[in-house]
From TrEMBL:
Protein's recorded name: Peptide/nickel transport system ATP-binding protein/oligopeptide transport system ATP-binding protein
PROSITE patterns given in the database record: ABC_TRANSPORTER_1, ABC_TRANSPORTER_2
Membrane topology annotation: Peripheral membrane protein
Coiled coil: none
Subcellular location: Cell membrane
Protein's organism: Parafannyhessea umbonata
Entries under InterPro entries matching the protein: AAA+_ATPase (IPR003593), ABC_Ni/Peptide_Import (IPR050388), ABC_transporter-like_ATP-bd (IPR003439), ABC_transporter-like_CS (IPR017871), Oligopep_ABC_C (IPR013563), P-loop_NTPase (IPR027417)
Single GO MF annotation: ATP binding
Domain of life: Bacteria
């Protein structure tokens, strides 16, 4: 396509036209693979409320999704959309007070974790579910060596294991995540390690007990580009080798396109679009999803000014009536301001759900 023809066209327009057929092929491949996988995590109608001086504020509203063994689900959206709150809900680490799960269920292998006590959740946390937090320097204990921190988690879930065996297992994990001079790093404190090494230690800790689900909350924040790529490749390799399901929380759509099988787009605590990654990038339907993709710089289109979604994510105390995105949406009509749309399939496609009035009967009338 000539540069004159590309100029002024958005990323979604270029990708949709040139890669839609390939996207359909990849989508079908992912669906065939998913059919052979067992459901691991099922979140249904999850509501999380913050009880504050300003009243009860809805942090997450009617969130539902599934994850299968060995697949990667990307949860995307701007800061303040409820991505990390979703992860903390699954881990049972919500800051209580003020946060509380007020409705819904979080089932891991058939067990509803919302109903478990704190003591019961300890058997799942680290053992069945691992988590890599955003900033490793604040997540690691500054007065414990890296090896001891990995060993601690192993011993908690394997009380009959000796310290010598746990040390050997911790050293094995350090080697597994590709850290050079593992024996030296084992005895090093967090401040003696680089940002990339600290993040690898966090991954080693999260995977030490071989959890069936790994939650990665923006695992490459504040790392340089080459280290980011290495960390993401490492997470992907661990998924392939250990069969771990990965929930990747990010606002980097480039990372999503490379790693994700399914994508959950969140806005202001609401699920607005849920589909397979190839389908989202070649056929994004919700105006917010399109805005996120259009804001990615692309070599395939030429625009004078990179697209930016106007406005900001609303404060929980100032949530608009109707569709939460309508104040920023270029297609908003009266019904968008009055009533929130349901999450429904588009054109009968159960693998592509969107919450938008634009795809309901009578919109164009």
């Amino acid at each position: 396509m000539a540069e004159e023809e590309r100029r002024g066209r958005t990323t979604t327009e270029v990708v949709s036209e040139e890669l839609q057929e390939r996207g359909k092929e990849l989508t079908q491949e992912r669906l065939d693979t998913n059919a052979r996988r067992e459901v691991l995590l099922r979140v249904k109608d999850l509501n999380v409320t913050l009880f504050t001086e300003d009243g009860a504020l809805p942090a997450i509203t009617s969130l539902s999704f599934e994850m299968r063994k060995g697949e990667t689900l990307a949860v995307v959206g701007e800061s303040g959309c409820g991505k990390s709150m979703t992860a903390l809900s699954i881990m049972g680490l919500l800051p209580t007070p003020p946060a509380k799960v007020t409705n819904g269920s979080i089932e891991l292998s058939g067990v509803d974790m919302v109903k478990l006590s704190n003591e019961e959740m300890r058997h799942y946390r680290g053992n069945k579910i691992g988590m890599i937090f955003q900033e490793p320097m604040t997540s690691l204990n500054p007065v414990m060596t890296a090896g001891k921190q990995i060993r601690e988690g192993i011993l908690v879930h394997n009380p009959k294991m000796s310290k010598k065996e746990a040390d050997a297992r911790a050293l094995e994990m350090i080697k597994l995540v590709g850290i050079p001079a593992p024996e030296k790093v084992f005895k090093s404190y967090p401040h003696e390690l680089s940002g990339g090494m600290r993040q690898r230690i966090m991954i080693a800790m999260a995977l030490a007990c071989q959890p069936s689900l790994l939650i990665c909350d923006e695992p490459t924040t504040a790392l340089d580009v080459t280290i980011q790529a290495q960390i993401l490749q490492l997470i992907d390799r661990m998924r392939d080798e250990l069969g771990t399901a990965v929930m990747l929380i990010t606002h980097d759509m480039g990372v999503v396109s490379e790693m994700a099988d399914w994508v959950l787009v969140m806005y202001a605590g609401h699920k607005v679009e849920y589909t397979l990654a190839p389908e989202l990038f070649t056929n994004p339907l919700h105006p917010y999803s399109r805005g996120l993709i259009d804001s990615i710089p692309s070599l395939d289109n030429a625009v004078d000014t990179l697209y930016a979604i106007p406005g900001n994510v609303p404060m929980l105390s100032e949530m608009p009536k109707g569709c939460p995105f309508h104040p920023r949406c270029p297609f908003a009509k009266d019904i968008c301001c009055k009533q929130a749309p349901e999450m429904l399939p588009v054109d009968g496609d159960e693998n592509h759900l969107v919450a938008c009035w634009k795809y309901r009967k009578g919109w164009g009338e």
